[in-house]
Specification:
The protein is an all-alpha fold. The protein contains three helices and no strands. InterPro entries: UPF0153_domain.
Length: 85
């Protein structure tokens, strides 16, 4: 599956616990990454400052669903499930 143009859910829903360029404290879940463009594309695509976790993310139906709204919902659920007990 290819990323859905104009989605950007993976740049909003999950947390990034490591500091990275532009977000020295990382990114909390539900907060839009400062590098998400108005067209909902990653502004750090191809840039070595892009977090490794972002580069490793692969669009899949299980996480992205059929719409941006489904992707946000499914990624939020994964975030909740990944929290320590």
């Amino acid at each position: 599956m290819q990323c859905r143009p104009g989605c950007g859910a993976c740049c909003v829903a999950p947390s990034i616990n490591q500091p990275f360029h532009g977000m020295p404290r990382g990114k909390p879940a539900g907060v839009t990454c400062v590098h998400l463009t108005a067209a909902r594309l990653c502004g750090l695509m191809g840039d070595p400052r892009r977090p490794a976790v972002c580069g490793a993310f692969q669009a899949e139906y299980a996480t992205c669903g059929d719409t941006r709204e489904e992707a946000l919902e499914q990624l939020q659920q994964l975030e909740i499930l990944s929290l320590p007990d």
